[in-house]
Amino acid sequence: MSEIRSSSVAYVPFPLGGFTPLQSSALSAVAARLDAAPMSVALAWLLHRSPNILLIPGTSSVAHLRENAAGAGLTLSAEDLAELDAIG
Asked: How wide is the angle at C-alpha 75 spanned by C-alphas 73 and 81, nearest 5°?
């Protein structure tokens, strides 16, 4: 069994909006093009940004759980990423 050193991988917790949901016209536009929920797109975008981001999405219902899971499976185009990166 291989040993995993905690110092070899740094994860950065990233609360998605905290108590205030992330809202943006760019996020809504990309979500509409992909026929996806805005939070699914936000999760996909943040997962794409860095392999060491540990997302902490709110999951207070089965519907939220489905949106969160859908975000992991979304593929964002270069155009989508550029539009989302302009948010902040």
From this structure: 130
DSSP state, residue 7: G
pLDDT digits (tens, 9 = 90+) for 66-78: 888 888 889 999 9
Distance from C-alpha of 9 to C-alpha of 58, rounded to nearest angstrom: 24
CA distance linking residue 52 with residue 41, whole number of Å: 18
Residue 24 in tokens: 């943006």
Q: How far apart are CA 17 and CA 4, in angstroms?
A: 31
Burial (CB < 10 A; 0-12, 13-18, 19+), residue 18, is: exposed
List Cα–Cα distances, 4 to 13, 21, 23, in angstroms: 19, 35, 37
